[in-house]
Amino acid sequence: MATPDVGSRIIASLKALAICWVLTAAAIGIYTHDIAAFYTSLLWSLPLLGVGWILAGLPLISVGGRVLRWPVVLVAVIGAVGGVVVILLPTAMLWAYSRGTEHFRLDWAYLRRWPLFCAGIGACGASVYYWLLARAAARAGEGGAASGVTEIS
């Protein structure tokens, strides 16, 4: 079976990250009906998407071609968990830093807003990465070693 090399996997993950970056800004702009929110979220979401790429993207890259043997739903769940962790991390760090004096509440009313939005973005990013990686593997079967893939038995 042909599997994309590390460079191809990194490029696929960065393409998926860029697609999710624009989709995040577009979703926020449409939700607020404001073009300024679109442009602001383009700048504001970069650190969050970067942390999400580190938490969910790098482990998926390091798994290699084995990720193509997994169901796409599992890859989407990994991305969704990464998105939720990214948005809850600042709140959890503040709660830990304040030694429990800060009120930290996770009820359904809070979880259905930003964490759910970030889970959707993370799942979308992981699914797009899976799709791009599958396309690279399919091209690898046609193009051989020139397309940045290696043959594994």
Average pLDDT reading: 82
> For the CA atoms, what is the radius of gyration?
18 Å
* Order of neighbouring strands in the sheet with most strands: 1-2
* Structural class by sheet pairing and helices: mainly alpha
SSE run:
EHHHHHE
Number of helices: 5
Number of strands: 2
Low-confidence stretches at least 5 residues in length (pLDDT < 50)? none
Tell me the domain tally: 1
The CA-CA distance between the termini, in Å, is 6 Å
**Portion in helices:** over 70%
Provide the β-strand percentage band.
Answer: under 5%
- What is the molecular shape? globular
Largest sheet: 2 strands, antiparallel
Can you walk me through this structure?
- The chain is mainly alpha-helical.
- 76% of the residues lie in helices and 4% in strands.
- It has one domain.
- It is built from 5 helices and 2 strands.
- It has a two-stranded antiparallel ribbon.
